[in-house]
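Please predict the structure of the following assembly.
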Amino acid sequence: MTERLFEGADWDFHTLQRITDACEEVAMKDLGLDVYPNQIEVITAEQMLDAYSSVGMPLFYKHWSFGKQFAFHEASYRKGLMGLAYEIVINSSPCISYLMEENTATMQTLVIAHAAFGHNHFFKNNYLFKQWTDADGILDYLDFAKNYVMQCEERYGRTEVERTLDAAHALMSHGIDRYPGKKKLDLRAEEKRAGRRRQHEEEVFNDLWRTVPKGAAKSRSALSIERRRKLLGLPQENLLYFLEKSAPRLAPWQRELLRIVRHIAQYFYPQSQTKVMNEGTATYVHYRIMSKLHQQGRLTDGNFLEFLQSHTNVVFQPEFDDPRFSGFNPYALGFAMMQDIERIVASPTDEDREWFPDIAGRNDVMGVLRDVWANYRDESFIGQFLSPKLMRQFRMFHLHDDPEERAGIRVDAIHDDRGFRRVRRELARQHDVGYIDANIEVVDVDLSGDRRLILHHHVIKGSQLNETDAKRVLQHLADLWTYDVALIEVDAQDKVLREYVVSPRPIAAAVA
Amino acid sequence: MAIHIIDRRLNPGGKSLENRQRFLRRAKTLVQGAVKKTSQERDIKDVLEGGEVTIPLDGMHEPRFRREGGTRDMVLPGNKKFIEGDYLQRSGQGSSKQSGPGEGDSEDAFRFVLSRDEFVDLFLDDLELPDLAKRKIAQTESEGLQRAGYTTSGSPANISVSRTVKLALARRIALRRPRKEEMEELEAAIAACTDEDERLVLIAQLEKLKAKSKRIPFIDPLDIRYRRFETVPRPVAQAVMFCLMDVSGSMSEHMKDLAKRFYMLLYVFLKRRYKHVEIVFIRHTDRAEEVDEQTFFYGPASGGTLVSSALAAMHEIVRERFNPADWNIYAAQASDGDNSYSDGELTGLLLTEKILPVCQFFAYLEVGESGGSAFDLSDSSLWTLYDRLRNSGAPLSMRKVSERSEIFPVFHDLFQRRETAQEKAAP
């Protein structure tokens, strides 16, 4: 029999080393995981609070909003309203996991299995993370960002920097490229090309061409709009990118600040799209590793029970009428789905064979799971792999709330044969970031006129922007653009629902 | 695979301190308002402990584009009895509260905890000590360094390169050290020379120049200059605070408590502005004595009331120990307003002639029983006296207090930034 990893609740650094080695053995041999090198750091509660207020990163630039976060977390932690996380893990190479010093030995094992192997594998292999994040570079980049912001503060004054960052933060959720590989128009190259074209026209000028009869060509103004849009890369949904490249009066350092905020938003973008999968993967991995360690006799029964207790808490899903309910728990849903896939692959029922012909009975559980972890995000994952059995188990149902409907909220579908696909599609949609975030894009700029920036919000299902917040964000946007900004809310039929126009505050114009 | 396990627990904490300060700076007015509101409900000791404050979130809002309203679809777990096509009544609760997790921005107030220093700072921030600058001469306490020209000796770190090179250049010119170009010219001439005799002459010349350039160094130890620093004494402001209190039988515990609170605030305030603050406690009945703090507040005493005795004692102490040229003198007197009728004349004289001229600030606090109705009837003898003095131009501040909750407002009132304070003092 293998030796016990530890007895009781105490641990020291040798224990941590042994735990990590044991976890690694299971992770590599049994689960076939592929991870970044691990770096495990033990921190105190205070340091955990610090990490909370800098979005979990070990270093970050200074800004008052992080102080607000910190004050808030500190107050609720002191009053006992909030427990602290057992760990924080950072998508970087080496993959850094922070462990709380207060955790018992069992908890440390759980946390190492969860973060250092579960999340780590997901970070390294999921296509979104591969596409959008640079794990090797992120810490260096954050270091650069921190120093850059500091230098700007020294050179241009703290208020100026703060104002720019405030504005950038307000637009952060709209500073993301959603589609990879989009060829961006290089404005400078475009300018050169335009010059060359003009020169060419002059060289080959022949007045005779004027007399050649033309067809019903596009009017001059329509042409110029098209051309202008193309030149500015419009329509553009990445507002920060647009401002960085095209705002007329920003100083170079301000553009660089926008760029920093944009890069950081982009770095976190995959995480918001893969909450269920990420936590599901990590929870599944820690469950497998812990069970294996227990089987091998490296964990005592007592320790294993302690683990099961906190595991059960983590994957608890309150029902909709429970006061504790606040939406789907990504841990619960993710873990249940991973286990369900395991079941479908290993011992499918007829129903599973019908719904999942590709994977049912393939018998290579880890192969299928690793493939799923690498190639899906929450929306597509739920859309493909949520099984009828799980919908029944969670007793899911779909509500349709139309304010126009007098009779009340309609139950649109429930967990029965008629409803499975509809429930699944709706749940997948609930996890689609593209669907959750307001769809706002820059559509035009009146360059020859008053330089007004025109944005459209494409309203889906009648859900418009909150007015106070929209005005405030637009104020920030106008301050950066330094001319008027108009936001028009249009529905699917291009009917204008509402229009906002905001002018920049004078101070911002004076600064630029 | 190498696994690094690092113990970060010993790393310096307070990483968020800077961000927190930025937040406080930004929220200053809001926090200040909250601090004042909180402090009125609290005991002094608690006030100085810091604590939780609540500010409206509105001013610290971080806006984002948020969507609301419209048709909503949601999938929920835990169906018990619904079947497709059922209609649920809108209860205003449950389903309609489904809005996204947000970041707590729907809350209208924001709570957090201030540390003791932060609290006191904010609390006293808009207050100012009168005549702070008038007599700032004081003990030479700290010493600072100051540039003081150049010297010929010093440590290598202090070498002034520009000054050294300048002197070297001057010396080289004065002693006619051959320049490099001069020698190069000569060398070129030698190389180009065909006449053997002339060549020898030129070589001799070159040798001479070389010898001279060796004799006169490029930089001589004589040239070297060091930056000189001098230590200069920096004066440190110091203050003494006189607490005068009537402890005769008519002063109740409640009144003493009010007076104590006022003194404590004054002490905290002075302490923030001066490095050294000394406190002198003088209590009086019909005679005055200097006592320690414990006796001052809690020691039993009884007798008649002669305010002049306290003023005389204070004058004596000032004369002996606190030279007005070196000390900033602040005095606060607390009393229920009783004074022997015959003492009025002497008190007035002492105050205007001896005490007020040396004081930066003299405050009179008249304390009353809670309920405070006694004040409405008539002014006490001391109040009448001081009021007369003030009206004839003496720089006196005076207030009446009968409730604990009034202490802070009164204190604030007294130390408002100066213009307003004066206006209020002389209505």
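Confidence is low (pLDDT under 50) at residues 182-188, 508-512 of chain A. Chain A touches chain B through 100 residues (CB under 8 Å).
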